[in-house]
Each structure stands twice: as structure tokens, then as C-alpha cells.
Amino acid sequence: MSAATAVLNPRLTAATTGRVLRQLRHDHRTIAMMVLLPSLLLGLLYLLWRDVPSLPGQPSVFDRVGLTMLGIFPFVVMFLVTSIAMLRERTSGTLERLLTTPLSRLDLLLGYGLAFGVAAAVQALVTVTVATTVYDLEVAGSLWLVVLIAVVDAVLGVALGLLASAFARSEFQAVQFMPVIVLPQFFLCGLLVAREQMAGWLQAVSDVLPLTYAVEALQEVGRSAAETGTMWRDVGVVAGAAVLALALAAATLRRRTS
């Protein structure tokens, strides 16, 4: 049985996860980008909006927008980091050597997903902690739900980054996928314009974009002290989209760049 078609091997998946985490541990710039950059960008938004008055009985602009950015920033950062990291594996020949072993494409990509999922959990914990303690972000619901949604959204960024890397031949091309995959989701997620105010065809497009559901889930946490069915449905949609993207990445991954 070839590496491309071998069944999932948990031991090989765990070994891949460990290898990627060891690589990340020695890449201080990537760690800084993943862990510190979202907090710094959120701080910039805090400085922009902290003195903007809000309507009586309404959350402040920063509380409303900053909460949703806790899901958007990890998504964007993990997409960039993962797409470039996987492309380097392929262009350096590492991927081709790995796939001559019993390691399957699914083992490899799931190992990457788990490793960056761990990084995403650290990222989410740091960002949410900084947002609520340093920037005084107020959330009606539980903070652990905010962390959960941020992690799931970051894993979605990882999965889409792995998928995009399969079609890129250089790091420059990998970055070029960001305006194709990330920006439309950002524009149509309901943060800039409420989805019910969009044209019908734009709403239809928004309905099939996973970031829409991540933003809606965070908005649910922001306005409701209790967990809601809509929030859990949205988290499930985002998680399902991440699994689908990983499966497509495994099916399209090439051994090397021609």
C-alpha cells in the first residue's frame, strides 16, 4: 500500500505532531507572529476605539468589534504561517522524503493540524487574556467559549493554509492566496456590514463561507450569558469546514514542487 493511500496511523500522526512542534520551538519569529501579533493588532484597535462613545445600553465599539477579531486574527495568522511552512517542506524535498516512508498524506496533514492546533490554543489563551485584562474587553458569555471558538477558527486557518499550499509553487504564490481565500470571507462575514443588509446574492455567498459562522458564534457569546444552540451550530460548521479542508488538502498534496 502506498503512502498516499495508507490508512491513518496514530503513532505516525503523533510523531509528525512532535516534529512540527520541535521545529516551531526553534523558530522564534514564527512563535512571535502566532502568539504576540494578534494581541498587538488588537491593542491597535483598542487605541483607535477606546474613546469612541457608544449608545446607551449598547456595548462599546471595541467590545463589539474586538470580540469578533479574536476569531479573525488567529484565522489569518495561522493561514499564512501554515501555508508557507508546508510549502517549505515541499520545496526543500523534506515532504518527498517523508512520503517514501509509511507516513501517509493524511498522517502528515493531521499531524500538522494537531501541532498548529496546540499553537492555536496557546495563541487564543494569550490573546483572550490580554484582551480582557489589558484592554478591558467585556463579554457577556463565558471566556472559555471565546477561547474555544478562537481555537476552532485558527484550526480552520491551518486547514485552509495546508490546502492552499498544495497549489502554490513558491512562498510568494502562497501569500497570494490570502486575498483569494481570506479577504472575501472577511468582507462578507457580517463584521463590516450586517448580513441582513447585504444584497441577496451576497448573503448567499456569505452563507457558504465558514468565517461567517465563526463571527456569528462570537457575537452570540458577546450578547448572551448562556450558551445558545446557534453558537454550537456555528462552531460545528466551522469545525466541519476545517475537516473538509484537511481532507481536500490530503487529496491534492503533491510530493514536491515541479
TrEMBL record:
GO process terms (BP): response to antibiotic
> Do the record's keywords include rRNA processing?
no
Note the superkingdom of the native organism: Bacteria
Spans through the membrane:
31-49, 69-87, 108-131, 143-167, 174-194, 235-253
* Record has Ribonucleoprotein as a keyword: no
Name the GO cellular-component terms.
Answer: ATP-binding cassette (ABC) transporter complex
Q: In what way does this protein cross or attach to the membrane? A: Multi-pass membrane protein
Annotated localization? Cell membrane
User: Boundaries of each ABC transmembrane type-2 domain copy?
Assistant: 29-256
Q: Name one GO molecular function term.
A: ABC-type transporter activity
Q: Which UniProt keywords apply?
A: Antibiotic resistance, Cell membrane, Membrane, Transmembrane, Transmembrane helix, Transport
Q: Which Pfam families does its entry note?
A: ABC2_membrane
User: What family does this belong to?
Assistant: Belongs to the ABC-2 integral membrane protein family.
Record protein name field: Transport permease protein
